[in-house]
Design goal:
The chain is mainly α. It is built from 24 helices and 3 strands. The chain starts with a strand and ends with a helix.
Length: about 600
Amino acid sequence: FFSDTKSEEMTTITFHHPIELCEEDLKEFDSTSSSLNNSLSDLIRVEVQTVGHWFEEYKKNQGNDCPFNALSSHDGDDDDDDSDSDEDDGIDGDAFVNINGEWKDQDHYALLGLGQKRWRATADDIKKAYRKMVLKHHPDKKGEMTPAESKKADEYFSRIQKANDLLTNKNMRRLYDSVDDVNEEVPEVLPKKERKFFFDIFTPLFEANAKFVVQQPVPELGVLDSPFENVVKFYNFWKAATSWREFGYYDDEFNVEEAESREEKRWMEKQNRNVRKKKKKVEVARLRRLVDNAYRSDPRIKMELQRQRNAKEAEKQRRRDEKQREQEERIRIEKEKEDEKKRKAEEEKQKIKAKKEALRKIRRALVKRCKKCGIYNVETSSKRILTLAEMDVVKQLSPERLEQLVRGVEDDDVFVEKVHNLADGQDDEMSEEELKAKEEARLDALPWSNDEQKLLEESMRKIPKSEKDRWDQIAALVPNRSKKACIARIKECVAKVKKQKENPDPPAQWTEEEEIVLTKAVSKVYPPGTTGDRWSQVADYVQIHAHTKWRRDPKKIIAKVKMMKNVGSELRKKQSSSSSSDFKKFEKNKYKKTS
């Protein structure tokens, strides 16, 4: 036998060697005892440190109040190999789980040594963990145990089997994962002072809820310096995410196993389904509220919104500055154009003034020479004296022609002859341009025909306004009409249309209100003997009180009155058949005037 003395640091183990001998052995032993005593050494005491795998497991079982002697389960070499590989696959095979209560309430992952992986454990991980748990906790490998320990060991092993059955069933595992290690907390929107703790509060919550998302992988919440594109992707992902979480693991409403009949069982299942649907709606609303509160509390969103506002304001300021620069540049250009226009106008004015002055000079020279030759403004002369009208005709010549006539013709007789010819309208030296201008003026003075008007309108529609030489093209399409004549005709038509819109022509058919108002005007308002232009007054009265845009011609009003033979009968007829509000107003005004 052996005995051990336990202490905190050292354990002393004393070995004894009891030997049972027969008589022959004793005799032989007596004869050889002296030699044996000389050969055997004295008993020794060995101190061993309390360390190692077996002692640590022993102490752990004592602390966890293990239901059976765990030390006896480590007898074979195969177990040692399995326990050594636990560190590689993340399976904790040495931990014991509390199995008190119902089997549904137990930690199934912890029973298989997958407490760290949990919902992330694959089917291979579960299969491997179950094999190791069977090798370590199978009742046949526990050795000798008391009935109570054997019962507890069987119960523990059965719980391991139930955990394996549940986790290897896809539907049951999903139901269990839906209630396992769940954090359903939804923080409210963080105030401004607490947003610095945003990542500490919301990161664990999103990581805990990530296992319920159908779309995988789930993006991380990130940090404060994460690119904003990642932040947008994160919230877009969660807003469109679908949760697979189900609520059938605990049917607290009705227990189907307690149903007494098939109908009652179906009814219970239907009620449980309704409860699950309600819980599902609550779960969807919870996730949506979590995402919304996180979005409203995220400092990165606030920073991005502020950045966008700053960028927008900067863009507005840039546009304002650019607009101001453009306006200043436009004002400067307009001012330069205005100055250039004024300068050119002044130059043109000076040129015109110089031309007029030159024309006056040459005309004075013409008159002076005509007087010298005795053909203008003289008392007596043997030659033909020019009248004032004839002199005006001669003066209408161009300055170049006058210059040539006055200073180019040295012979007085020739000069007098040419002046008389010009006064009589006989000008053989007129240039082609002057002849062309004279002919154009003659043609432009002719009235426009319907064909010419149609050609002008078609040309206006055909040639767009964007064309630079638009009026030249229009004049080319209208024969015998100059550009100046086309422009004048269009202006005349536009003015006529505008005038017609302001004062449209009255229709041939009289309206009923006009007839009523006319009857009233000629019989009572402006009866025969009215002073002034009676029919003009009647026309104005009819236009105002009949609410028409046009004004009837007094002559047409006289013709209309002649057609209405019996004015009194017509008035009574209109009064009886018409319920016009205007007639009532007229009657009211009549009573006011008479009163």
